[in-house]
Write a structure and sequence with these properties.
This protein is an alpha+beta fold. It contains 23 helices and 22 strands. Strand 7 and strand 8 form a beta hairpin. The two termini are about 20 Å apart.
């Protein structure tokens, strides 16, 4: 066994690397899913993460006791939550944030903080607060420092007593932003009585957070909370699955599951086929020895066990390399995740079942391929086994057509005959090249899709420079005031309200947007790339939202606004738009205000600003009274691009290496087997006067021809795989467009062809150094 392994060590290592690719990706994906889910579950349980959030405009504290009696509620806290502007002198841009109250009289029963450094604010101390750890580290804040912030127009200075982590801020993202930015968004926590005094909210709260019992009915409780809190301006209670931080973590877990479901079978399938081809060739070469052993009394099982040991050695080597690679990749990815998901810890830990699964699947594929390869030859009787197999017959079918085709030169005819002689091997080679190209192309197309998503959102759909939202809806004069601010070139109003849309049994919670006719700063675009304006009467839905509601143009939806006077009615869908980030429900702002019954009011405005005045304008707007948030689109685009470049760069490199691994393993094994089998033939040609180049053409021309077949098949398979990945990895947060660019297809093809050329050059060296005397002596 070891003699056979050493004789084919390069081929065995190439096969082992292909198997290792599948094992490592499977272990990486399943291990990260286990790590993220277990870490999230333990963190949420230990810190009593809320199941439901119920924001209101203002409600009396006594209402909490009334809500506590609702069946299914295990714990409930009423708290105050306000947007603030944090004064950070060292920061070049204004820093926004929020301050949240925590109970002073008892331990929190919901959303308990994890103290990383220092302590919580002392009860009764009006000047103490704790700060989100990630924000504090970005600004080098330590316990004992003082920071100041503006809350409801009042300047407040507090002593930082500790740095904390929060289960509801694992992915801390500012309102209106797309990615976290710890330098521009922070969270503070203060005692509830202290914060109530500072904000003038004694005896009131504006958000209830709840933990539910296991048997609780979430839809029933959400409906009951909305009814009970309707008098206090409830904007709609929502479950943890709709909470932004948790939704991002869940989306990442879903993508990892998709990765583990699609990629490992490709590697293990190719590895199994390579094992079959190589072991079949080895069995064919050793047929006389097999016959001799059987003549001396060795049983079929003993002979088969010999070859299965070799298969097991190759598979074990691939499994070992794959497990080590998977653990290493997993640890590196865990370190990358911890930079964006603020868990107290995140260690890569694959469950025992994950290891059992990868071992079982890889063993099943490799050993199964080995059994198929040796079964037929081992079953031969000794006389047949010691008899050489009959030479191939080219006198029929395609063989005779090729021999009679006078326009084909002799070397090319030999190439075609070899392919006809071994059609299975040719199919494996072409299929392996196609598989590696499909995998690589799907990754590159995903990267193009992300760039297309960014371009669509930041350049086509949204053309504003800054987004301003008010603390509460305001009249038309607010828009005129914004237009008069120095540096503002243009301003377009919008109205937003939380609402529920229903179609039959389907129901979705949405942010209902109202825009003015002819709006240019922010717009919706349909599948054909055309602008979809807000209709004078009716509603425009994004395609993903329409699918969830099982609705389309011309159909009517039930509309329930979940804030203000909470009006209800019916609205007709007039058109669909294609969005890649979030969902959309758009109507004319006049129609929306008529439904809301609040007159001509707006929630904010899209601004076009003078680039030279952007820095000063940002500071001016943030300090202006009545403005809740200010978001500059360029900063968001830069942050999102940097985040994606870092993450996608790592993934792209890994997948490119894996794809090249498949191509290298398949092509090298195919050429190496062909060289071994035809060594005597090639030496004879050299003796007859054929040059090294002509002999190399006979051997490597076969690979070139199969590459020409495999590349188009790989491009087609890659397109299908890209479509599947785009569908499988889409979520409520984002959806990847499928963009097939000629340059991307050319890049993927060149990488795979380059790998094929590398494999050919390795074998070409053996052709140049062939020992013709020894080769001619071989049988």
């Amino acid at each position: 066994m070891f003699r056979d392994f050493l004789g084919m060590r390069v081929q065995a290592i190439a096969i082992a690397l292909v198997i290792a690719g599948g094992v490592s990706v499977q272990l990486l994906s399943s291990g990260l899913v286990t790590s993220l889910e277990e870490t999230r579950r333990a963190y949420y349980e230990r810190n009593l993460m809320a199941d439901v959030w119920a924001p209101v405009v203002r409600a009396p504290r006594g209402e909490i006791d009334s809500l506590r009696t609702i069946a299914g509620i295990e714990a409930i806290e009423g708290r105050i939550r306000f947007g603030i502007r944090i004064d950070m002198p060292a920061s070049q841009a204004p820093v926004l944030g929020e301050v949240i109250s925590i109970p002073e009289s008892h331990e929190p029963s919901v959303n308990r903080l994890h103290v990383s450094q220092g302590r919580l604010p002392a009860s009764g101390r009006r000047d103490e607060a704790v700060v989100l750890k990630r924000f504090a580290e970005a600004h080098r804040i330590v316990p004992g420092d003082h920071i100041s912030f503006i809350i409801r127009g009042r300047q407040v200075q507090v002593l930082v007593t500790g740095l904390v982590m929060s289960p509801e801020h694992v992915y801390a993202i500012a309102p209106g932003e797309l990615v976290p930015d710890e330098k521009r968004f922070g969270v503070l926590w203060m005692g509830d009585r202290t914060l109530a005094e500072l904000a003038g909210w004694e005896g009131a709260f504006n958000e209830a957070v709840l933990r539910l019992s296991r048997e609780a009915s979430v839809p029933d409780i959400l409906g009951r909370l909305d009814r009970e809190l309707a008098a206090y301006g409830a904007v709609g209670a929502y479950h943890r699955s709709d909470q932004v931080s948790d939704a991002f973590v869940s989306s990442e877990v879903d993508q990892l599951r998709t990765l583990g479901r699609v990629v490992p079978p490709v590697f293990l399938g190719v590895g199994a086929v390579l094992v079959y081809v190589v072991i079949s060739r080895l069995v064919m070469v050793q047929r006389p020895a097999i016959g001799l052993l059987k003549a001396y009394g060795y049983a079929n099982g003993q002979v088969m066990l010999h070859f299965l040991k070799l298969v097991g050695l190759i598979g074990s080597l691939g499994l070992l390399i794959g497990v080590l690679l998977g653990i290493w990749f997993g640890r590196e990815m865990a370190q990358l995740y911890i930079r964006y998901y603020d868990f107290p810890f995140l260690l890569f830990r694959a469950a025992a079942s994950d290891y059992v699964l990868v071992c079982a699947v890889s063993a099943l594929s490799v050993v199964g391929a080995g059994l198929l390869a040796v079964r037929a030859s081992v079953a031969l009787n000794p006389a047949d086994a010691m008899t050489p197999p009959p030479p191939p017959d080219y006198s029929k079918a395609a063989g005779i057509a090729i021999t009679r085709a006078r326009w084909i030169d002799q070397q090319t005819r030999m190439i075609l005959r070899q392919i006809i002689r071994w059609p299975g091997r040719a199919l494996v080679t072409a299929g392996g090249i196609a598989a590696s190209l499909a995998l690589l192309l799907s990754v590159l197309v995903m990267m193009d899709g992300m760039e297309r998503m960014i371009s669509s959102y930041f350049s086509e759909a949204n053309r504003y420079d800054a987004l301003v939202t008010f603390t509460e809806p305001r009249g038309p004069t607010a828009l005129h005031d914004l237009r008069r601010v120095p540096g503002v070139l243009a301003a377009e109003p919008f109205r937003v309200a939380t609402a529920k849309l229903r179609s039959g049994t389907a129901s979705e919670r949405v942010a209902l947007m109202g825009a003015a006719p002819g709006s240019e700063r922010s717009r919706l675009i349909d599948a054909a790339g055309y602008d979809v304006p807000p209709p004078l009467a009716g509603l425009v839905l994004s395609e993903d939202l329409a699918r969830k509601l099982k609705s389309g143009p011309g159909e009517w939806l039930e509309l329930e606004v979940t804030e203000g006077r909470r009006p209800t009615g019916r609205v007709q869908v007039t058109a669909l738009a294609r969005t890649y980030l979030g969902s959309a429900a758009l109507m004319d702002i006049t129609q929306m205000n008529r439904i809301l019954g609040e007159g001509a009011v707006i929630s904010g405005a899209y601004l076009q600003v003078d680039p030279a005045a952007e820095a000063g304008l940002h500071e001016l707007l943030v300090q202006a009274p009545g403005i809740a948030t200010v978001s500059f689109l360029g900063l968001s685009e830069d942050r999102l691009t940097a985040l994606m470049d870092e993450n996608i760069g790592v993934s792209l490199t890994v997948f490119a290496l894996f794809a090249a691994m498949i191509a290298l393993g398949v092509v090298y094994n195919s050429v190496r087997i062909s060289f071994t089998e035809r060594q005597r033939e090639l030496a004879s040609l050299r003796v007859l006067g054929f040059s090294k180049a002509a002999v190399s053409y006979i051997l490597l021309g076969e690979v070139a021809l199969l590459t020409l077949v495999g590349v188009p098949a790989g491009l087609a398979a890659g397109c299908l795989l890209s479509i599947y990945f785009a569908e499988a990895m889409g979520s409520d947060l984002f959806r990847l467009p499928v963009a097939f660019e000629p340059a991307t297809m050319a890049t993927a093809s060149l990488i795979v062809v380059g790998t094929v050329v590398l494999s050919g050059l390795i074998v070409r060296q053996r052709i140049d150094t062939i020992n013709m005397v020894e080769a001619l002596k071989s049988a």
